[in-house]
Design goal:
The protein has helices spanning 24-34, 43-46, 80-87, 101-107, and strands spanning 2-7, 12-15, 18-19, 38-42, 59-63, 75-77, 95-99, 113-119, 127-128, 138-143, 147-149, 152-161. It is α/β, with parallel strands linked by helices. The model has no long low-confidence stretch (mean pLDDT 96).
Length: 163
């Protein structure tokens, strides 16, 4: 299983329900990696999507505790047990965890690859991704050269589980 995330220097991922930054090439990379795949997200993340609609050309699995929550074009599950049962239907390498904080934390133990966009900037954050640099179970597989988008320096860092 995979995760894909954009983090700042402090592993911040969001503030008040919004992404910290939107980088065009990062969004293109996200689309290229997840197109035709399975994305797993929480209801709050779904609420940030345009029109609150699932991502096109992907299987969207949304975790929500609300038993009455439905999403046209998405698969809604209401517990971790139900999510794990649903994920058995798909090849693990085709599954991408895409947020938010709670979903990332719950699903990280099941991931073996994390695609991180590291933004060289500190932003006010109220949601965070676990610091993979401080976790001995993770190592960097590859790092891209630093790029810039509207004066925001960033790089792509791919992590793999070592254990």
């Amino acid at each position: 299983m995979n995760a894909i995330v954009n983090v700042d220097k402090n592993w911040g991922i969001g503030n008040k329900g919004e992404l910290l930054v939107r980088i065009r090439s990062d969004l293109k990379r996200f689309k290229a990696l997840t197109l035709g795949k399975v994305v797993v997200l929480g209801r709050k993340t779904m609420d940030t999507f345009p029109g609150r609609k699932p991502l096109k050309d992907r299987t969207n699995i949304i975790l929500s505790r609300d038993e009455n929550y439905t999403v046209e074009g998405g698969i809604v599950v209401h517990s971790m047990e139900e999510l794990m049962e649903e994920l058995k239907k798909y090849p693990s390498e085709d599954v991408f965890i895409i947020g938010g904080e709670s979903i990332y934390r719950q699903m990280l133990p099941y991931c073996d690859t994390v695609y991180v966009t590291r933004v060289d900037h500190e932003a006010e954050s109220d949601a965070f991704y676990p610091n993979l640099d401080a976790d001995p179970e993770w190592k960097i597989r590859q790092t891209s050269e630093t790029q810039t988008d509207f004066d925001i320096p960033y790089s792509y860092v791919d992590y793999v589980r070592t254990i």
